[in-house]
UniProtKB/TrEMBL annotation:
Residues 1-22 form the signal peptide. Keywords: Signal. This is DUF3347 domain-containing protein. Residues 43-133 form the DUF3347 domain. It comes from the Bacteria.
Amino acid sequence: MKTFLYSIAFSLFFLSPYSSNATVKKATNLTEDQAPKITATAILDAYLKLKNALVTDNGKNAAAAGNELVKAFAAFDQSKLTALQRKTYSEIVDDAKEHAEHIGLNASNIPHQREHFDLLSKDIYDITKLLGAGREIYVDRCPMYNKGKGAIWLSEVKDIKNPYFGKAMSTCGAIKETLH
């Protein structure tokens, strides 16, 4: 009987759900007392400015917002994060910062900005899941971007305003998730 109980305990210990986003999930599965209520407001605000500039096909404003986002990453106070949140944030932010920098350097190349925005959106999604949005944020998806592979973006409004196709196909997409 003792061997049976040990084998069950051993099996449960090693059987855990696998996720490609496991680090973010582990960091967000903290109890209310363990996880501080911190949101990345300045980061999210700069990202939304960037998204809105791409919606209107404005590469210059997208570049300015990309540069603002780089500054928001640098100014973000990690001191109130748990060790696991800090580690996860650090793993995400380096890539996100690089994409924001590329967007900032390419004011005259909107297609290139959009390529980096696709990758940046995934990073901002992960950061928002990790830290919280502090408000209602919609995760939208365009199924046609990137030759039909699709792409997500975060939005502050329910109306679909597609940053990947801008004015050419401004309403292509659908809400896939709501974050808070």
